[in-house]
Fold this protein.
Amino acid sequence: MTKRILILGAGKEQIPAIEAAARKGIRTLVLDMNSKAEGAALADEFCPVSTRDIDAILKLLADRKSKIDGVMTIASDIPHCVSAVAEFLGVPHIAPEVARRCIDKFAMKEALLAAGVNIPEFAAIASVEELETFVERFGYPAVIKPVDNSGARGVLRLTRSVDLAWAFDYARQFSYSGRVEVERFIPGLQISTEGLVLDGTLHTSGFADRNYARLDDTLPYMVEDGGDIPTILDACDRQSVVAEFEKAVGALGIDWGPAKGDMVFGEDGKAYVIEIAARLSGGNFCYDKVPWSTGVDIVDILVDMAVGNSVDPRRFEPDRNLATVQRYFFPPPGRIEAIRGIERAKAIPAIRKLDLWVEPGAMVAAAENHPSRVGYVIACASTRALATAAAEAAVRMVDFVIA
């Protein structure tokens, strides 16, 4: 009997899941409030429903309950919605309380602290005075963020030059609940980890060094400029990061499916957990960079897990060791009159993918968070040095003519 999967979201980031299901002969029901989303046309069935409106989703599924075998998303920070819908359908999922904990950064930090996970000092703050007290105690730099958003929205790195009253108001406006937190900034190598929990074991397939070379240029905003596989860490230090990631995933109660870690290998030689998400990542990590580098297709495996297909753990074993490097485009603010050099950049042998989200006529603002970036390039080569050279050459080759 043909299986069916519900995929929450039909944007660019969810297309890999839709395509993976199609390759397996699994029929897709896809939801997105945007009826013009790119993945809508790829779905076997599409419905214009918000992926955050749990009541509307359950109402839609009321007469289809026995016809859906699994539910998933990619890149969208809605594990609570995935879990609620999966529980209604009786298909694999994490517990709703676990999912809710993973979308509240303060509740997450409290659980990690209680379990002895290595995390930076942190505090919930309800006023500028509380923010000032934290900074007086732990010093600069610090990071302020909304407790319930993603994609670096509302995230600021605080230094002595940043007005704390402005920073508090800025972070709060990006919070769905109006709640914010502050934490000590950990200097060191920032890392993305990602894996799937299968039969009680976390398989960490994704491990990349995040590129924050623009950190001072974008102050006080924290905008990542891509990432690099493989890591520069040696095997021992890499394992210390993975061990702390595994400890955090267990502490939060993620006992099935995806887990994503924002980690830091500090200058003090310790691995720190910044955040854990109970979802697959965006930014091409899980569906392009990890498979191209290692051969492990996390998305394909999760589709099988979601609909209850058996999964051989050997699918998590890498069958290649290539380097992938991603860089983003950061044109100066203004109106784009023309974009030149795209085809030349694509012609660089190591370039696997180049994608822009803007066209001539579009207005570009200074980058404040990850969604405000305008496009990217990904290079894949035998070594990290070769991939880096190709990606950065491609970025230089593309010229944004700004009015």
Notes: The two ends are 58 Å apart (CA to CA).
